[in-house]
Amino acid sequence: MSGDMLDRYDLDNIAIGTLGSHSALNILKGAKEEGFRTVCICKEKDAIMYRKFGVADEMVLVQDFSELISEPVQERLRRLNAILIPHGSFTAFLSTEQLIHDLHVPVFGNRELLRWEADRKAQEEWLRKAGLRLPATFKTPEEIDRLTIAKLPGAKGGRGYFLAESPEVFHNKFSDMVRRGLLKEEDGDRIHLQEYVIGANIYPSYFSSIMKNDVELLAADRRYESSVDAIGRIPASEQLEFQVNPTYTVVGNFPVVIRESLLPELMRMGDSVHEMAKRLAPPGIIGPFCLETVITDDLRIYTFEISARIVAGTNVGIGTSPYAYLKYGENMYMGRRIALEIKEALRQGRLREALA
Ligand code: ADP
Questions:
Q1: Per-residue confidence (pLDDT) for residue 155, from 0 to 100
Q2: Angle in degrees, 0-180, between the axes of helices 263-280 and 120-129, rounded to the nearest 10
Q3: What is the CATH number of domain 137-195?
Q4: Could you tell me what percent of the chain has a pLDDT over 70?
């Protein structure tokens, strides 16, 4: 559908645009390095950052990101010949239906996969069918029989998540979170209960290339989360005294180099997730995606989520990362890899295929 929107575009003068947040520096810098003009749809208060880093040739100022679907903003983007690169803020500020039906500007990637990503059950089905190992899930709090993480739907940065190992603990903690204003009473019905796997968190990021017909492992990171990453700095006796409930608000990311013997399996996982996506939502994943995994001490890899778009964790690779270096040499990273794909698609006259 995105492809038809190209009819009125000047293909010799394509710009790459995105919403000013999340991984916009990464995307816009990469686009500039591949020779594209760039457009940042941005809030006034954040414009300083994109100006000072000099990554945006054009700024479209908005009060709120939901204005992306307003006709004047869309018309301006079309006049700029802009192709949009979606990231986490697109799905956080606009509904899947708005992104699929109301956004008449070409978007890099497969919009149909947004449906699979947005729905936890569909996402689980996709990952299971791809042969990945997933944590167990529980339908009701009464089924909880092991350490479990309680999650609210939507990309909330882990805010309001908590752990419980029994139905009683679940109900106590839920009430506590409501009292502290972190959750609302009505959130109870929407909570997703998933086995909490003890292990190391690794987020491998891949790029699925339509032009090369290949899935590339380009980066890996782990998150720096408040307050869970701070709890270990408080003596255990005080943790008990203050009854700290960990929360998982992401405040940053660390680059990770993965034990080499784990890479073959991670690569096979990336390939099979894309193969399954081809069947569920042809032509499968176009561009970046990330698997959110926990790796246990017996080196089992559990995948608890997929993001079928660029993740902010790839920002650790701006400039380069070991895996991007192994594949492309210096100065390759996710934002630039996207632009490279668009450039190659333009060269081969196949841009429509990258805008499913
Ligand atoms: P969101 O995607 O909403 O930001 P996540 O699902 O990534 O939140 O979870 C937040 C935190 O909880 C992360 O630190 C993640 O690693 C951890 N986590 C999520 N699910 C599990 C699980 N099943 N086992 C272990 N840790 C988990």
A1: 42
A2: 120
A3: 3.30.1490.20
A4: 97
The closest residue, in CA terms, to atom 5 on ligand 1 is: 158
* 132 residue type, one letter: L
pTM: 0.94
Phi and psi at 155, nearest 5°, equal -75, 90
Query: Which residues of the chain are in CATH 3.30.1490.20 domains?
Result: 137-195
Return the pLDDT at 154: 57
User: pLDDT digit string (tens) for 225-235?
Assistant: 988 899 999 99
Hey, which CATH number is domain 2-107, 3.30.1360.120, 3.40.1080.10, 3.90.1570.10, 3.40.50.20? 3.40.50.20
Residues with CB under 6 A from ligand 1: 135, 149, 151, 155-158, 161, 194-197, 201, 223, 225, 248, 292, 294, 304-305
Nearest to 324 by CA among 340, 312, 309: 340
pLDDT tens digit sequence for 50-75: 999 999 999 999 999 999 999 999 99
Residues 6+ apart with CB under 8 A from 97: none
Contacts of 314 (CB under 8 A, 6+ apart): 23, 26, 205, 218, 219, 221, 288, 290, 333, 334, 335
Cα distance between residue 252 and residue 257, in whole Å: 17
